[in-house]
Amino acid sequence: MSELIHPTAVVDPKAQLGPGVKIGPFCVVGSQAKLAAEVDLGPHVVIEGRVELGPGVRVGPGTVIGTDPQDLKFKPSTVSGVRVGAGTVIREHVTIHRATKPDGFTEVGAGCLLMSTSHIAHDTRVGDGAVIVSFVAVGGHAEIGEHATLGGVSGVVQFTRIGAFAFVGGCAKISCDIPPYVVADGVPCVAHGINVVGLRRAGMPPAERRVLQEAYRLLYRSGLAPGRALERMRSELPALPAITRLIEFVAAPSRRGLVPPPGGWRGSAAESAEGLEREVV
């Protein structure tokens, strides 16, 4: 089936349109756009610059993808863009800005849901299956892991990492890294436990969920410094893929430090957490 373009839409003849593409009323599609098969643009969508939308991507009315980043250091002559994976749904009035780095891309994975009026800033990477709820603002260079969920009206500070299958409650101030599988909430954000409901829905067996809960206890409730907690995880817990992912995330360099438990880090754990943050800033 050939593409279906509303007569009021403005589509540059150089844009690459796959079979079955639908472009609604008053859309604007630029010359560097690449829309794969079955992409569906609702009314008043703007696709500007180097934007690649994977097969089956649906874009709601008023959404703007690929415009310049909100970065005072950015040079408009920089060649960069936005990539969105197959099957992702982008609802009404979402904004996704292009990267600041030459030949860089702001990336949204496959099968994601970006709810209305959410914002994805420059150079951010959103993993497959992530859910970004309405009015969430994700700052530049952030990393959102696969199947993570960010609750409505939350704010993510630049360079923050949020791990796979993490769940963040609504109205949260996310200024520290949130490990994979962890539930976090609050202003400022603190860790509350393992995302048992999300992992159950994802099909993780109960035995593996219990191992993750033990890993959380070592990291957040044992009083150990994070480095010592990681040593205990490596020596005492089975080498499951989920445990390996959690350990690698916590051990990786961080600009923001690790989200604390309620009441904050204490004793040697506080000194260790502060030292880790100083090392990477």
Provide the fold topology.
Elements (H helix, E strand, L loop, with lengths): L3 E2 L4 E2 L4 E2 L4 E2 L4 E2 L4 E2 L4 E2 L4 E2 L2 E4 L4 E2 L4 E4 L13 E4 L4 E2 L4 E3 L7 E4 L4 E2 L4 E2 L4 E2 L4 E2 L4 E2 L4 E2 L4 E2 L4 E2 L4 E2 L4 E2 L4 E2 L7 E4 L4 E5 L1 H6 L4 H16 L4 H11 L4 H11 L15 H14 L1
Parallel strand pairs: 1-4, 2-5, 3-6, 4-7, 5-8, 6-9, 7-10, 8-11, 9-12, 10-13, 11-14, 12-15, 13-16, 14-17, 15-18, 16-19, 17-20, 18-21, 19-22, 20-23, 21-24, 22-25, 23-26, 25-27
Antiparallel strand pairs: 27-28
Helix pairs in contact: 2-3, 3-4
Short description:
The protein is of the alpha/beta class.
What does this structure look like?
- This protein has 281 residues and is of the alpha/beta class.
- The chain folds into two domains: 4-141, 3 Solenoid (UDP N-Acetylglucosamine Acyltransferase, domain 1); 200-280, Up-down Bundle (Udp N-acetylglucosamine O-acyltransferase, Domain 2).
- It has five helices and 28 strands.
- It has helices at 196-201, 206-221, 226-236, 241-251, 267-280; strands at residues 4-5, 10-11, 16-17, 22-23, 28-29, 34-35, 40-41, 46-47, 50-53, 58-59, 64-67, 81-84, 89-90, 95-97, 105-108, 113-114, 119-120, 125-126, 131-132, 137-138, 143-144, 149-150, 155-156, 161-162, 167-168, 173-174, 182-185, 190-194.
- The protein has an eleven-stranded mixed β-sheet. A nine-stranded parallel β-sheet has the order 2-5-8-11-14-17-20-23-26, with no helix packed on it. Strands 3-6-9-12-15-18-21-24 form an eight-stranded parallel β-sheet, with no helix packed on it.
- β27 (182-185) and β28 (190-194) form a beta hairpin.
- It is elongated, with a radius of gyration of 20 Å.
- The N and C termini lie far apart (52 Å).
- The mean pLDDT is 95.
